[in-house]
Structures are given as C-alpha cells and as structure tokens.
Write a structure and sequence with these properties.
The chain is an alpha+beta fold and 227 residues long. Helices cover 40% and strands 13% of the residues. It has one domain: NADH Oxidase (3-Layer(aba) Sandwich), CATH 3.40.109. Bound molecules: flavin mononucleotide (FMN).
C-alpha cells in the first residue's frame, strides 16, 4: 500500500476476531516500527507484548478494580478533562461511536458496558504496553518519542491486515498492568495498544473519525516570495 493511502486508511479497531496473532508477525511489526525517530536517538521505549493468560489476568484485574470503584491511577500526571474545541472533538467521536452502536444517551448500562470494553482491551488477542525509564521524568520528550513509535506500530500492523487501538483505558489501573505484565518498578507505563484481526461485523469498526482542515491549524510564513 502507498504510504499516503495507508496513513489515511488506518482507523482505530475496537472489535476483534478471536484469532491469535502469531508472534512472528508482531516481531516483524516491531522491527519496522523501531525506525521511528526519537529525541537524540535515545529510543527510550520498552514494549511489553502480552497475550493469553497474563492478558486475561489484566482484563480481570482492570474490570474488578473499576467495578470496585478503585480510582484510575496512571504513572504520570495528565490533564483529566479537555476544554473548548478539544472537548467538542472528544464528544464528536464518542457520538459517532455510540450512534453506530445504537447506544442511547440515557442507556447507562450499555454505556458502562462500552467503557468496560476499553478496560478489557476491547477483548483483543494482544496488548502492547509501552513504557519508559522512570528516571527520564519529567519525560515529555520521551513520551513524544513513544507516540512516534505507537503510530509506526499501528501503521505497520494495518499494512499486515491487523487492526489496533492505541488506548489509555487499558493502563489506567497501572498497578494491575504492572503486576501481571511484570513491568519493573524502574519503568513508567505510558500507553497500551490493543491489536488483532479486525471483526468487520463489529459496527464500531466502521467509524471513520474526522480531521480539521489543515488551514485551521497550519500557519505558513515567508512563502510570498516564492514564485
Ligand atoms: C494517546 C491515545 C489514547 C487513546 N485512548 C483511547 C481509549 O482509552 N479508548 C478508546 O476507545 N480510544 C482511545 N484512543 C483512540 C482515539 O480515540 C482515536 O485515535 C481517535 O478518535 C481518532 O480515531 P482513529 O484512530 O480511528 O483515526 C486513543 C488514542 C491515542 C492516540
């Protein structure tokens, strides 16, 4: 697939076939994705690839904690609520997803089910947990590097017929993930990526999110002199 076609075609996948992903395919994806750039080539990432029983334990731990009302806790500070245009875009994508799923605003039970799906890693057969060394804090630049790696992973996966959703939900109960994924105390958990073969019958997988016009966020300077 042409790169421009690939990057525009990729979308988040939130429903998966119960089909294992061969380790060799994941290794290939990571071999490609590791060519992502990083600040001063520090490559500050670790990728913990989890499937099978340990992933089941993470799903259960996340679900149990959420149902017990254990407040989510991440390894790094983050803004919990968006404002203005960011809030609007957050709501827009939620509305798109709930609309296709036929989940009404007042249907608390199905809304909760949907949220719990995220904590179960969308029942994906694989989850990749991305971490970085704790000593790097304040780690904004390293977190940026992990973002670059994440995008490369989801694109390389898409090229191979695999779907992904980068998600914060799966690692919000960071102590659960740390325990079952055996993540050393020296690392901070940044994000996870659910991965698997897309279930094309799952309607939320049909949602295509929107993007702003480039003219809304790009400023060009000094081009007037170009003939
Ligand atoms: C850092 C990050 C965190 C995300 N967390 C979640 C999440 O917790 N749950 C979820 O359903 N999607 C999550 N997403 C997916 C976004 O909602 C999605 O990328 C966005 O709506 C654009 O849609 P697209 O990926 O289909 O282009 C996350 C994406 C990123 C980059």
């Amino acid at each position: 697939m042409e790169f421009s076609e690939l990057i525009k075609a990729r979308k988040s996948i939130r429903g998966y076939l119960p089909k294992p992903v061969p380790r060799a395919v994941i290794e290939e994806i990571i071999e490609v994705a590791k060519w992502a750039p990083s600040s001063m080539n520090t490559q500050p990432w670790y990728v913990h690839v989890i499937t099978g029983e340990p992933l089941e334990r993470i799903r259960k731990g996340n679900t149990d904690n959420m149902l017990a009302g254990v407040p989510p806790k991440r390894d790094f500070p983050m803004k919990e609520s968006y404002e203005g245009v960011h809030r609007k875009r957050q709501i827009d994508i939620a509305v798109q997803l709930f609309d296709v799923m036929g989940i009404a605003r007042e249907d608390k039970e199905r809304r909760t089910d949907w949220v719990m799906r995220g904590f179960r890693q969308f029942d994906a057969p694989v989850s990749l947990v991305l971490t970085y060394d704790k000593y790097l804090e304040p780690a904004a630049i390293s977190q940026f590097d992990l973002g670059a790696l994440s995008h490369a992973i989801v694109l390389a996966a898409w090229e191979r017929g695999l779907g992904c959703v980068i998600n914060g939900q799966g690692i919000m109960q960071s102590s659960v993930v740390r325990e079952h994924a055996r993540i050393p105390d020296t690392q901070n958990i940044m994000i996870c990526i659910a991965m698997g073969y897309p279930d094309h019958e799952f309607v939320a997988n049909g949602v295509k999110s929107v993007r702003e016009d480039a003219s809304d966020f790009v400023t060009y300077l000094g081009f007037d002199a170009q003939k």
